[in-house]
Design goal:
By secondary structure, the protein is of the alpha/beta class. Among the domains are: about 130 residues; about 70 residues, no CATH class. The protein contains 19 helices and 13 strands.
């Protein structure tokens, strides 16, 4: 497929429209019909229950209020009757006795009125709290049921999601079972899977024991100064990385942030019809005003008639005005829902050309490019919000940011909307339809393999800043790895003794001469890598690697004191700290052409650990405790 400048704002037709569904079409259609009817009934039930509970709460408040007022008025009336008694008595003693009696009545009347008011108020509080809790519980249950029905319809119904799942399964099955060059497929599924598992295990073991030697061959540069002063916004690169990391993690929403301990979200957030709770969480974590959120996926409140499934490759997004950096910021969320997973799994390669340079041909991740085109659609709400923001603030630039899937999509979106320009590396192009000449930069965290190597190098000229934490596996995953694994499995099958030799040598390497064993293992893994030459996609350059390693350092308070031999004293002389490094990856092909196996390769991808590492980086570089929060 070729994308020209006239096609940039038009989302291409999905490749799944003509694909079969996961189940037979008639059964899938029946499931979709039943799902629609169920969701309509659930939503109607929710409205009826909501109305009933609102009526119950109103009736409870009115009835208790009437009862409280009636009793209070009765007691007050009795008090007035006693105090206005027309009979007069000349006897001073009787008058004194009556005066004391009236004072006693006044005292107990006031006490009774206060007691009645407090009792009714407390009763009303407990009654309304019970009704509110019950209403919330029922509505949450109905919403969970509706989402479950929607999920079932998405997977098994007559939907684009179901067609996408079926297409992905068909693609993988064809790649493994019908590749004429893959001889192991003729042995049967069980034998083939066993060979693939053996190949993966052998390669992971070899990589583990030769990791330090390989890392030395990957060219990196430890950063001490600003890499490129032309980057936008005009702040230090570490400050920008920290600032927009908070945007990327805040896009996951209030619930995700609370569960994973991201930020310090208040226990109670404001509720209003104008802004969703996720808006308040996003504004609190990023430091912007909630009024500066121009658009988000939560702007349009769901209605009874809104029963359709969202677009297959539509990402959760926020469009914000950031006055501190003088930029309009588009933030896209990473993988969290089924639609996001299917976008990730649409991993075939798509050919396209730059809108501004038709002679340059590149390849990109099919699903992510489709998602980027959807955002670039001129009639879309995201495009319109960004254009209005840039027009309203003529001296502001554009920042695109995101974590994981969101990072890969906004990188491709940046390619579609920009062109190179000096002195600013990239600016909005005229074919994009946005106000031309505005500086553009992308800050992406844990980006997936979204583009070919030459396109990644193009982005590395000043369009994208990518940050990869630790052994994050997502930045190494590409469709080409399947082909590489097939080649390694075939080689190990032809030389059946090699896999057993690898395992036995690794287990017994400490009982023999380790130098000779390491040399044999290194030569073996180099032979394997010679078979791993399939075309792959890579994360967008420029790529920075951040790593935060916990350590114990000597406490300055005890540095000059004489140490004692007790363990308590030894522990008090040290405190926990982190050594955080930021390095520039000079060779992304060597670093991201294969999975770097590690115990932490999955958890290193979480936005929680990204925030932790970047927070330590900001604190260490700027020398301030709250440096990350103030970036």
């Amino acid at each position: 497929m070729t994308i020209s400048s006239s096609q940039i704002a038009t989302c291409r037709n999905t490749i799944y429209e003509l694909s079969p569904t996961l189940l037979p079409e008639n059964i899938a259609g029946l499931i979709t019909t039943a799902s629609l009817a169920t969701r309509v009934s659930l939503r109607c039930s929710g409205l009826v229950i909501d109305a009933l509970f609102e009526g119950a709460k109103y009736g409870t408040s009115v009835s208790l209020g009437l009862g409280r007022n009636a009793l209070t008025n009765a007691i007050s009336t009795a008090k007035l009757i006693h105090s206005s008694n027309p009979e007069n008595d000349d006897d001073d003693q009787c008058a004194s006795t009556e005066s004391g009696f009236l004072q006693l009545i006044d005292k107990y009347t006031d006490l009774g009125v206060h007691l009645i008011s407090s009792t009714f108020t407390l009763t009303e509080l407990f009654a309304l709290s019970g009704l509110q809790f019950t209403s919330k519980t029922i509505k949450t249950g109905l919403k969970a049921c509706e989402e479950t029905v929607r999920l079932i319809d998405g997977i098994f119904g007559s939907t684009d999601t179901s067609r996408a799942i079926a297409s992905i399964i068909t693609l993988v099955h064809r790649e493994l079972m019908y590749d004429p060059e893959f001889e192991l497929a003729q042995m049967g599924k069980i034998a083939m899977l066993g060979s693939l598992t053996k190949a993966l295990t052998a390669f992971a073991l070899l990589q583990t024991v030769t990791h330090h030697r390989r890392i030395k061959q990957v060219q990196t540069t430890v950063l001490w100064q600003e890499p490129d002063p032309r980057n936008f916004p005009r702040q230090h690169i570490i400050s920008n990385i920290g600032h927009f990391m908070r945007y990327a993690s805040a896009a996951y929403g209030e619930s995700f942030m609370r569960v994973f301990g991201i930020g310090d979200i208040p226990s109670v957030l404001p509720t209003s019809h104008h802004h969703h709770r996720n808006h308040h969480a996003f504004a609190h974590h990023t430091g912007v005003m909630v009024q500066d959120i121009l658009l988000s996926s939560y702007t349009d409140h769901s209605s009874l008639l809104n029963m359709h499934h969202p677009s297959l490759h539509a990402l959760v997004h926020y469009v914000t005005v950031d006055h501190r950096t003088k930029s309009i910021v588009l933030t896209c969320r990473g993988t969290l829902g089924l639609s996001d997973v299917l976008t990730d799994l649409s991993f075939t390669y798509t050919d396209f050309t730059l809108p501004t340079e038709p002679n340059k041909h590149f390849q990109a991740h099919d699903g992510m490019l489709d998602a980027a085109q959807l955002l670039a659609k001129e009639k879309g709400k995201v495009y319109q919000a960004i254009r209005r923001g840039l027009e309203q603030y003529p001296d502001y630039g554009l920042v695109l940011c995101g974590h994981s899937l969101g990072g890969g999509v906004v990188s491709l979106l940046g390619v579609l909307w920009t062109l190179t320009h000096d002195p600013v590396p990239f600016v909005t192009s005229r074919p994009s339809g946005l106000p031309a000449g505005r500086p553009v930069h992308c800050y992406v965290y844990g980006p997936p393999c979204a583009m070919s190597y030459d396109l990644s190098q193009y982005c590395g000229q000043g369009l994208v800043t990518s940050v990869v934490h630790g052994y994050d596996v997502v930045s190494c995953l590409s469709w080409g790895l399947i082909k590489d694994l097939k080649n390694v499995a075939t080689s190990l099958h032809e030389e059946s003794h090699t896999a057993e030799a690898i395992i036995s040598r690794i287990i017994g390497r400490y009982n023999r001469r380790q130098e000779e064993e390491d040399q044999w293992l290194w030569a073996t893994i180099k032979t394997m890598r010679a078979d791993m030459r399939a075309d792959k996609l890579y994360p967008p350059s420029t790529v920075y690697h951040v790593e935060s390693v916990p350590q114990l350092i000597q406490n300055p308070i005890h540095h000059s004191e004489t140490a004692t031999s007790t363990s308590t004293s030894r522990q008090s002389q040290h405190r926990k700290a982190h050594m955080t490094t930021l390095t520039l990856c000079d060779d992304i092909q060597a670093r991201f052409s294969e999975i770097n196996f590690s115990r932490s390769m999955f958890v290193d991808h979480t936005p929680t650990l990204y925030e932790k590492a970047i927070r330590n980086l900001c604190r260490g570089f700027f020398g301030q405790e709250g440096a990350y929060e103030n970036t």
